[in-house]
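Page 42, continued from yesterday. The earlier attempt failed because a stray header line got pasted into the input along with the sequence. Redoing it now with the clean sequence only.
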Amino acid sequence: MIGDFKKFLLKTNALALAIGVIIGASTGKVVSAVVDDLLMPPISMIMPAGDWREAQVVLSKATDANGKTTVSAIKYGHFVGSVVDFLIIAAVVFGITKMILPKEPEVAIEPTKQCGECLELIPLAAKKCRACCSLVA
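This time it went through. Structure tokens are written below.
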């Protein structure tokens, strides 16, 4: 039983998935800390005072027999707040990714020309087409 479990972990992607989940969770904590502790204090100084996330357009109000009021509303403040949160978190994740991941080397694009016979793209310095073997001027 233990041998089968060891084979499962080592032969499948279960171990890689588990490691990915753990790294993802820890990265999420770093992102949350950056957003909550570093970015939101200055942003809150810019944002209007008051609880703007509670802004809503009330469609209807109803009061039941117990006196409890039920409100049906479009909560656009919550939506706008969620969009702002998403944009901030996405920007932080983008910045962290740019810092951690290595830069891809730029690939030099070789100038090409088109073969007159088969229309294959070939290097500019080629004298013979690699596709149809015709001479290229």
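Notes: Helices lie at 2-11, 14-46, 76-100.
Reminder to self: strip header lines before submitting.
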